[in-house]
Predict the 3D structure of the following.
Amino acid sequence: MQSLAAYYELLARWNQKINLTSLENPDEAIDRLLLEPVLAVRVLSLPPDRPVQLMDIGSGGGSPAIPLALALGPSCTLTMVEVKARKSAFLREAVRHLGLSSATVENARYEELLAKPGLLEKFDLMSIRAVRIEPRILMTLQAFCKPGAQLLMFRGPSGPDEPSSVIHPLEWQTTVPLIDVLQSRLTILRKRPDGPGVPRGTRMS
């Protein structure tokens, strides 16, 4: 909890200079930015005896990525993807400030990272918040996930529990409520072990 508090304090300070996230309602901000990711970890079924590789897309102010990594523990390796330079600078400062030695920041669009073979089919978990979900995007994102990996979608109350945009090699696993007052939900997709890795037509360097 001390690390979560330190992250939130740093976020609040930086938010006065650059627009990282909305903190107008502190109670709601704490629920959404800190508690939602911690609650999400409790519903995951992860093997306790090996490190976890986590990728977060559109990391922005660092949630859910950083609270997820803190809740998963020191064996978690975190890769945050953020296209905006100023937000990436905050994320790097947060990594330094919190001593997250196994965390890195990719200042790029996620599509550009397909050209990095070392990132393909590397991750056990992928987290997404505020990213438009459609088949084309999901097909790109699944390329970074290991077969059997879980994709965590942090969502509000709108839309069905089972998203209609999910196509092979991803499959819907479950949707669970997170915080009642926010009507927030976590949808978990799974990459089938027999699924293709890199989308067709992707050029590798």
About this structure: Residues 2-44+51-191 form a domain with the Rossmann fold fold (CATH 3.40.50.150). Confidence is low (pLDDT under 50) at residues 199-205. The first strand starts at residue 52 and ends at 57. The two ends are 42 Å apart (CA to CA).
